[in-house]
């Protein structure tokens, strides 16, 4: 039996015990951590503002000590984003530390530095790369040459057999290229997720990038019918695709798992249930980490949340009853798979990529 299989099985047990702990004793478990490990970035995407923040980042020692505390408190899934996470010189030490604790590790990247950091990425469970459409569309919302960065990175990741996927932001350019995006995913045998544009900072003007409602509506209906017809490479669940139909208008309310099962850490080292909620924020140097993570934080969110990572976790963890759809979501996301089985055949590869949906969280 491979270690990958055992690892996934242990993670499934951790998820179930966290759910039981919460239901029976009301205790939170920081099962999932989403960590913006740096704000630095070699890109300047017009819909993003994180690269504008030059605040001091925590040191390697502080980060490693925090990972230890997180692990003790129950963290089993950790997702590193940014900024561009591969710009952090000590990322390999950080990843190795998580790997030694048997955590499920995901890295989200723009793809530009994948080739030179491929050895670090061989230690992670999933690499998610942003991919916003065909070359002119992708380059327009990033910069010239960024599409080639993704294609090159994809080749290297697949050659090294590192599980990877794409994440597409539904900008004005992307919505009219859904078929091309799906064709690209199929041609490369790589899973893909979609999420709408959202205002993450007042300093960013999204007007020029926003799709018009009709084009957006057509794109979502297309995604829904691809998904309904069993397209295994679209990792978003049907629940999420239906949830984002009304964008940018208020979506249906969904109970949020932030503060119960997942927490976020920003590049300054502030820890909170969710960065969208004002108030309670703690710094990882404050020594209150464990208390913060295990005390129940009631999350009252008044603005619509469009992030696929957050919403998919909500659908996975906050279901009130086990409907067939929830059961299918759980199966497709948490069912253990042996890493060694992954590349045996194209069919198995596709199936496993779908099942590794937890990586898009
Ligand atoms: C902030 S980036 C960090 C990781 C890496 N630099 C990258 O671009 O993949 C994480 C993801 O958030 C997406 N993103 C950034 N700003 C966004 C916004 N305003 N609305 C929706 N998605 C956004 C990016 O496209 C990317 O897929
Ligand atoms: S590459 Fe990622 S972090 Fe950098 S500016 Fe673009 S979205 Fe933001």
Brief overview:
With 361 residues, the protein is of the alpha/beta class.
How would you describe this protein?
This protein has 14 helices and nine strands. With 361 residues, it is α/β, with parallel strands linked by helices. A nine-stranded mixed β-sheet has the order 6-5-4-3-2-1-7-8-9. Strand 2 (77-81), helix 3 and strand 3 (104-109) form a beta-alpha-beta unit. Helix 2 packs parallel to helix 3. The two termini are 26 Å apart. Bound molecules: S-adenosylmethionine and iron/sulfur cluster. Iron/sulfur cluster binds next to loops.
Architecture blueprint of SSEs:
Elements: H1 3-25, E1 32-36, H2 60-73, E2 77-81, H3 91-100, E3 104-109, H4 118-121, E4 126-130, H5 135-141, H6 146-159, E5 164-170, H7 172-175, H8 178-188, E6 192-196, H9 213-228, H10 238-243, E7 262-265, E8 270-272, E9 282-283, H11 289-294, H12 308-317, H13 324-334, H14 346-355
Parallel strand pairs: 1-2, 1-7, 2-3, 3-4, 4-5, 5-6
Antiparallel strand pairs: 7-8, 8-9
